[in-house]
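Weekly sync notes, structure subgroup
Attendees: PM, AL, DS (notes)

Item 1: joint prediction request from the bench team. They want all two components modeled as one assembly rather than separately. Inputs as received:
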Amino acid sequence: MVEFKDVSVTYSSGVDALNKVNLKINDGDFAFVVGSSGAGKSTLIKLILKEIDATSGTVMVNGFNLSKLRRRKIPALRRTIGVVFQDFRLIPTMTVYENVAFVLRVIDAPPKYIRSRVPYVISLVGLQDKAKSYPTELSGGEQQRVALARALVNDPQLIIADEPTGNIDPALSYEIVDLLRSINECGTTVLMVTHEHDLVRYFGGRIININHGNIAFDEVIGGNAK
Amino acid sequence: MRASSARYLVGQGVKSIWRNRMMSFASFCIILVSLLMVGVSVLTTINLNRIIGGIEDQSEAAVTIKDDIGKDKQEALKKQIEALPNVATVTFYSKDEAWKNMKKDMSDEQQDLFRYADENPLPDTFRITVKDISHMSETTMQIGTFENVDSVKSPTQFADVLVSIKNILMIIMTAVIAALIVVCLIIISNTTRASVFARRKEINIMKYVGATNRFIRIPFFIEGMLVGIAAAAAALLLTKFAYEGVYGIFKNDMSLWSILGVDNLYPFSKMMVKVTAAYLVSGAFIGAVGTSISAGKHLKV
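Output from the run, pasted for the record:
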């Protein structure tokens, strides 16, 4: 669960990125976050990951009160969140399998669990035949699916997808969102930041529109799909 | 932490050395040179101290006692001298003994000269050693004021020279070590920066998935430590050869050097364990601490 209460962020440059934002995303929700660049979408994500702190107000994420969370406890918070980036951020010197297994290794998971969990997650995103390939041998859509598998592998409560379709073919974008929807159906909260209105209109659901640091619109709309 | 994780971290550290081999080599060289310089200065100082110590042990002050003062007064004087805080030992050296020793050292012709001297011309003396040679002149001055003391002879000037040599050496060594540590840390910091840069993508992802800072830092720590240990091993070999070479030169030419107390030099085998331990520990320490400090700085974890 993500809850913002009167959250404001003012950067040291004097820019007001968010202005008394109130927002609540319940467990199991699927929400699109839209808005033009510079509207405050990235600030929102950085707050949830505690890369930055709110200037005022409180941010609650998965039971952590981020304004009171000590630096030492940040890893514990981040283990409950999976992140997918626009530029995939896969490690080019590792295979698909290693890219996914890497996440479990760095959180000190048992090797037995790694050996069973990683192939399962890779098959969830439909890449079981590419486990031994390197990222450069894959298409953009496939790379993003690897990134998705990596975000999923430690079974997070919340997945944040930051423009996950920004670098891939429009046709493949629908695949990625479909995957995110099916992950959401299994109970994981998904927050997807995008500026592709076609995609949002197609799928529908909860739309949060941020404009100049304020929430301009937060409603559920029907999609064209189905 | 699990054994598998430990293996993984060590593996990452080793890989990182190879990935940044040029910078690792630079670190290796600078740690090697630093250890060598510090090691050589320490070994030299230890041996100089041994030599100086040897000379100190031999450097006695001779207190000449006034003639025919009698046993009681002699005893009283001895007690008086022994009561001085800086006096280590007081040995009575009788005129007869002194005469006998002197004659022993003489050639036959020289002995002939003294054959008809019916009276022993030498005085009774006390041989005094001091605890701290740098205060020898004060001590001898005090003894000189005592009753029944004729004169005090001591190698005070020589002692002063030895002490000042020792002090200058200490200052130079401290400065050299301090400078080397700074240089070491700067170079290692650069190596680490290169290493962090090469792994920045991984580190970034590690942070997002909730790796602890410790987990991110450990490979760098291991990288630094391994380079440090390798440098220490190389430094140890070089030191061993150099030391044994120099030691051999001094030992084979004993007659010339023994006056300086060079026979007090330590053979390398006697110090092998200590030197090895010191090198390995300080090599690993410089490497590991150097990388850890700068890893923290560059990672901003």
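Discussion: The interface with chain A takes residues 1-2, 4-5, 8, 201-202, 204-213, 215-216 of chain B (CB under 8 Å).
Action: AL to compare against the crosslinking data before next sync.
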